[in-house]
Amino acid sequence: MHKVACLFSGGKDSVFGAFWALYNGWDPILVTVFPEPYSMMFHHPNAAWTKLQAEAMGLEQVTFKAGKEGELEKLQDVLASLGIKGIITGAIASEYQKQRIDKIGHELGIPTYSPLWHKEPVLAEELKHFEIYITAVSAEGLGPELLGKSFQDLGKVRNIHPLLEGGEGETFVADAPFFKKRIQITEWEKEWDGVRGVAHIKDAKLVNKK
Description:
The protein is about 25% helix and about 30% strand.
């Protein structure tokens, strides 16, 4: 079986990347970086809760911490140690992120896959079957009332990218068709500084699907 690394933040794009790997019959390992806040490369809010998602999917997960300096070098070292045959990212439109992961793939001599690259309509359709929460907002028109709410609520907001590209916001997936169990979020802690905000998961658990 084709062993691949799926760069995994717990958001909608990386969850879809894991689904895509499984759909192709591959054996994905979830690789999660615990970055410092406001990393340009990696999703930060609620990264610790990705362990529940990995369990819900029944997939192996590798995690590590990275500072702002050398985070890509550390990622490359981790990927090199896994014996993988490819790297999957959830990149949709960020040239900054895609180019840097492609460079790591080139250095390691393995292919990189970005199944969602410029395929926003495909993802938008698939996400109708996911249970997704908004965990961070940082764009005009996105207020604290959206924190911890369903991703579907974004349909009421104008003048933003419908998939929150460009750093407008971040998400957390609690359920998807291929999850073996659902994540029930029982408590949030929300912060808002007047411009941007984050919804931190304070308590959650795995429950059986209905």
